[in-house]
Design brief:
Layout (H helix, E strand, L loop, with lengths): L10 H12 L6 E7 L10 E2 L3 H9 L5 H8 L5 H8 L6 E4 L5 E2 L6 E6 H6 L1 H25 L3 E4 L9 H12 L3 E2 L2 H7 L9 H5 L4 H11 L5 E3 L5 H18 L6 E4 L4 H14 L6 E4 L5 H9 L6 E4 L1 H4 L10 E7 L2 E2 L16 E7 L5 E9 L7 E3 L7 E3 L5 E3 L2 E5 L2 E2 L6 H14 L14 E4 L1 H16 L3
Parallel strand pairs: 6-7, 6-11, 8-9, 9-10, 10-11, 15-21
Antiparallel strand pairs: 1-5, 1-12, 2-4, 3-5, 3-19, 12-13, 14-15, 14-18, 16-17, 19-20
The protein binds adenosine-5'-triphosphate (ATP), 1-O-pyrophosphono-5-O-phosphono-alpha-D-ribofuranose (PRP) and nicotinic acid.
Length: about 475
């Protein structure tokens, strides 16, 4: 759908690449970590999404003729352009499983590749993972509040341009059951659904005829929009007339949609009118600037709404514009690397690393991940990343290893997982997270600590760098 060839990047990746190439360092091995620093939506968790999209892109990543012709105009050297012509991503990637819950400070993805390859894929990796993780997290927050009601993505028209395409994918991972986005349905294999716009009703002289024609044309999938003129005096009575006519033809009206006014009041009144007419099977759907807070509020008001249609707040991640995920070098030319910062929380963690999730004896999440050196089998202690007074013994706590190889020599190790599989897995993981991390207000802080060996290595490198400036 979108052409993700070589120029879909920040140009500094390519300019740095030329320097490595000219210095003969193209084959030097590097390790980068993808992680984020802050949970969006003041929430207690994030849902990792976008991995399969990234793997699709990386398996096929190359510079097209058009890319190379453009780069010729950007003052790159001819030999380097020849190198880019043959460029393939041949690296290895370790990752948390797509759909899993992830937390600030712990590596979510580790890229091991030669320095040029690892650098060139940075932008696309961040672009895909940051956005889909943000939207899958938002969708999951709505899924939790909807308590089993159906969620439909209506967002394409309100999305930030092409972002709507991947927003629909991420929404499905988060627990949406359908989308109005036909292209996303085509490409990702999930349910596409549609009701009708106000323009359709407006185009008729009377609402009833508009409803009748639609029902005749789409008898298996008729959801009537009832608020164009007057929901209770016109929309619902006309929907009941059409529902009855459909019954006489052996068909069933699927639903009605409320799109303005007091949705709780109107849903209650509509439900009663439909039930009294014997149309208790007709579903009530609601839309109009909804988000997780309004879904909660409507259900707290006991609004009998079966389906929520959500656009803007879902696909834009409102009110958080982006996930702040970053990609940092942790190992290069056989040496651990660190990035220093005035802010201690921003000092990066050196070395190839692994992440362990702490579990209770039933396999539920305890509420902490430990980042350690790759190869540490069972970290014994977990330290707060920068508060020396906070640590705990974790040697006897059951753990699971989160970073698993997913790509080797540029090719997937396992079969591509379907969205349905990823979404189901995500719900399994969500069920393992204690409720205090899922509440809206002041959720419990999920801890991400570091092992003793990793802490010592980081501190040693900080000292080493500091000495240079004494
Ligand atoms: N019972 C309710 N409790 C809380 N929020 C509600 C309730 N009913 C509707 N809302 C929300 O309140 C907002 C109302 O929006 P708005 O002021 O634009 O009214 P409207 O009904 O869309 O008006 P208009 O008739 O001009 O389209 C929407 O976000 C809607 O989802
Ligand atoms: O969560 P939201 O961003 O509100 O997205 C959903 C809205 O989009 C549509 O309205 P629109 O006015 O675009 O079209 P319409 O004429 O069909 O109502 C729909 O009727 C919802 O109100
Ligand atoms: O199918 C719908 O009802 C729909 C689709 C997109 C936006 N609003 C509504």
């Amino acid at each position: 759908m979108i052409d993700f060839s070589g120029t879909y990047t920040d140009q500094y990746q390519l300019t740095m690449g030329q320097v490595y190439f000219k210095k003969g360092e193209a084959e030097e091995a590097a390790v980068f970590d993808y992680f984020f620093r802050k949970l969006p939506f003041k929430g207690g968790f994030a849902v990792f999404a976008g991995l399969e999209t990234l793997l699709d892109v990386l398996e096929d990543f190359r510079f097209s003729e058009e890319d190379l012709n453009f780069l010729k105009t950007q003052n790159f050297d001819a030999e380097y352009l020849q190198y880019l012509k043959e460029f393939r991503f041949r690296g290895k990637i370790y990752s948390v499983k797509e759909g899993d819950l992830v937390f600030p400070g712990a590596p979510v993805v580790r890229v091991e590749a030669n320095i040029i390859e690892a650098q060139i894929v940075e932008t696309i990796l961040l672009n895909l993972l940051n956005f889909q993780t943000l939207i899958a997290t938002k969708a999951t927050r709505m899924y939790i509040q909807a308590k089993g009601r159906k969620l439909i993505d209506f967002g394409l028209r309100r999305a930030q341009g092409l972002g709507g395409y991947h927003a629909s994918r991420a929404a499905m991972i988060g627990g949406f059951e359908g989308t109005s986005n036909t292209r996303a349905g085509r490409d990702f294999g999930f349910q596409v659904s549609g009701t009708m716009a106000h323009s359709f009703i407006q185009s008729y002289e009377d609402e009833l005829q508009a409803f009748r024609d639609f029902a005749e044309s789409h008898p298996k999938n008729t959801i009537l929009l009832v608020d164009t003129y007057n929901t209770l005096k016109s929309g619902i009575p006309n929907a009941i007339t059409v529902g009855k006519e459909m019954e006489s033809r052996g068909q069933k009206l699927k639903g009605i949609r409320l799109d303005s006014g007091d949705l709780a009041y109107l849903a209650r009144r509509s439900r009663k009118m439909l039930d009294d007419a014997g149309l208790d099977y007709v579903k009530i759907s609601a839309s109009n600037q909804l988000d997780e807070h309004l879904i909660k509020s409507l259900l707290d008001q006991e609004a009998p709404i079966d389906i929520f249609g959500i656009g803007t707040s879902l696909v834009t991640g409102k009110p958080d514009a982006a996930l702040d995920g970053v990609y940092k070098l942790s190992f290069f030319r056989d040496k651990p690397r660190i990035k220093l910062s005035e802010t201690i929380a921003k000092v990066t963690l050196p070395h190839k690393k692994q992440v362990y999730r702490l579990l209770d004896h039933e396999g539920n999440f305890l509420g902490a991940d430990v980042v350690c050196l790759h190869g540490e089998e069972n970290p014994e202690m977990m330290f707060h990343p920068y508060d020396p007074l906070k640590f705990r013994k974790v040697a006897d706590v059951p753990k699971e290893q989160l970073l698993q190889p997913v790509l080797e020599n540029g090719k997937r190790i396992n079969e591509k997982r379907s969205i349905q599989e990823i979404s189901a897995f995500s719900k399994e993981r969500l069920a393992k997270l204690p409720t205090e991390f899922k509440r809206f207000f002041n959720p419990h802080l999920y801890k991400v600590g570091i092992s003793r060996d990793l802490r010592d290595e980081r501190d040693r490198l900080i000292d080493e760098h500091k000495k240079e400036y004494l």
